[in-house]
Amino acid sequence: MFNLKFDKETARFYRYSGFIDIVKFTVYIEKWRTPIPKPEDIVVEIGVPEDFKNKTKYKPLDIDNNSTLRSKPIYEELREIEEMTKTIRHDPIVTRNDWEVGSVYIPKDLVPNNEIISIFIQWQ
Q1: pTM
Q2: Which of 1, 18, 53, 82 has the greatest number of beta carbons closer than 10 A?
Q3: Which helix (H) or strand (E) covers residue 60, if one does?
Q4: Hey, where are the domains in the chain?
Q5: Predicted confidence (pLDDT) per residue in 80-111, tens digit
Q6: Do 63 and 32 touch, CB atoms closer than 8 A?
Q7: According to the CATH classification, is domain 2-123 in 3.30.870?
Q8: What is the pLDDT of residues 2-30, one digit of tens each?
Q9: 16 and 34 in contact (C-beta within 8 Å)?
Q10: Cβ distance 2 to 85 under 8 Å?
Q11: Where are the beta strands (DSSP E) in 1-123?
Q12: What is the pLDDT of residues 42-67, one digit of tens each?
């Protein structure tokens, strides 16, 4: 598990980051999926889909119909998009309108050797 801190707001996302050794680990979370008020800290777990059985994924309409779901943990399956110098960029495998998180920049040493990886985010 990795603790990340809020460090930037964009038009669509809140960015949470932290350093693992000397490599920055960054997660962008959709604003519609973030509790109000916005937490300053999150805990992130990375694994393969089999590691996170029975996790629920929410869509914007779910949150529109029940805003208390914003405070539920986020589960997202990701695929590799681009290898950087020290990280690998992953994006959700679902349609962009249903993303709960945006791009995730994971230090190479933390990425499981699997075509599809999973991320589980809990609010602190």
Answers
A1: 0.92
A2: 18
A3: helix 60-65
A4: 2-123
A5: 999 999 999 999 999 999 999 999 999 999 99
A6: yes
A7: no
A8: 999 999 999 999 999 999 989 999 999 99
A9: no
A10: no
A11: 2-9, 13-20, 23-30, 41-47, 74-83, 87-92, 101-107, 116-123
A12: 999 999 999 998 899 999 999 999 99
